[in-house]
Amino acid sequence: MSLSNSPDPAVRLAVVQQDLGNVLHPIVQHKALEARQMVVTRSEGSTIVDADGTEYLDGMAGLWCVNIGYGRGELADVAAEQMRQLSYFPHTAMNVPAAGLAEKINELMGGGYHTYFVNSGSEANEAGFKFARQYQKHEHPGEFRFKTISRYYAYHGTTLATLDAGGMGERKAKFEPYSGDFVHVPPPYCYRCPFGLSYPSCGMACVKAMETAILGEGPESVAEIIVEPVMSGVGVAVPPDEYLPEVEKLCRKYGILLHVDEVINGFGRTGKMFAHQHYGVSPDIIAVAKGISSAYQPIAATVVKNSVFDSFYGEPSENRQVMQVNTYGGHPVAAAVALRNIEILQAENLTERAVEIGAYLLDGLQSLKSHRNVGDVRGKGLLIGVELVKDRATKEQLDPGQIGGIVDLCRDHGVIVGRAGGGRGFGTTITLCPPLVITRAECDRIVETLGQALLALASG
Length: 460
Ligand SMILES: Cc1ncc(COP(=O)(O)O)c(C=O)c1O
Known about the structure:
460 residues; alpha/beta; Aspartate Aminotransferase, domain 2; 7-stranded mixed beta sheet; 5-stranded antiparallel beta sheet; 16 strands; 17% strand; binds pyridoxal-5'-phosphate
């Protein structure tokens, strides 16, 4: 496959200059960007193409989001057609695509849910925090339930409240102080168990610590618990199967809402339509984004159980309605594209494919355990982490420069892999979250390229 449009170095250089002179990029250091430029112009399947004609196999589906793969021209037609019909109107009124998308999401959740539309995963979680607080105000008028219990090393978004909910010290440090409304507990990160224990003899110490936090804070002050079923940002930490059901039990015991972050985990990624469905739990609030449209349009949603929805239902004089609005929520073009994206996901059985290809890729990556720097290989569906260590016995993390070197080397060989961790307390992990359409041959290429990079690391 060749995706390059007769590359023109002069045009590429002009774009680079235009960009560096005018754009402020997220999270990357501009000096690094100057040294390693990438001008992405085209994409197809699991491949993106630089303006200089270089093709890269995208092992991260962009930012963990292009689930159905790149280059689906059909979605451009859906967007164009919808723009001709109705380009926009606020979602205080109804529109056809958003109603259809909400119905589809409800069906995928197994029924019993209503959907509130927003524009990003951060906003979806942020709305979830607010719904939880408002719900508790309605349902427990004598109490003051406002706190969220969350986990260290989690990532839930980039706004102040979602950062606060997250537990990545280095991401948070520059914006302190925070509200103190988010209470953190140790995560089920078994490879580096915060209690130094092993499953199952640990007796789920992390869940016990959660109950201690609830009791210590006072259940009457806790509105909700937020969990990402498979923690992506820490380096793909897959919890023991009983973890989420145990957390749900705590929620029911203390009248706390269960808020599940499916921003990355959702829409087939882990081998079920939603990751919480692996564990048989029934969350009260679910944040979805990314794979909802495979990033063909910016759209996200906060899905609430009907028992939560009912709490917001009443006469206008009761003042129970959702007390927030955002301009683009329920955008008809984004909703139309997202709906078709999900139809493609279903028609092509991409969730089932995540199971099959995910197992194939995981198997291939297991073979890398022959390299002394590979500490752990883990994953669920097509969400995979390869945790790298200096020494398997001590589990000492790589230096940031070493894991950065691996990522750069892979990219130099035309394969994009992600990295997680390297922060305080957690490991250095190569992450893989490719489009669900990735082929076996492409998986082989990822394994081979990562193997070469590991050899280079070992030889110093
Ligand atoms: C688990 C999780 N939740 C929430 C978010 C925030 O989503 P967004 O970047 O769309 O705001 C992310 C982003 O990567 C995420 O990984």
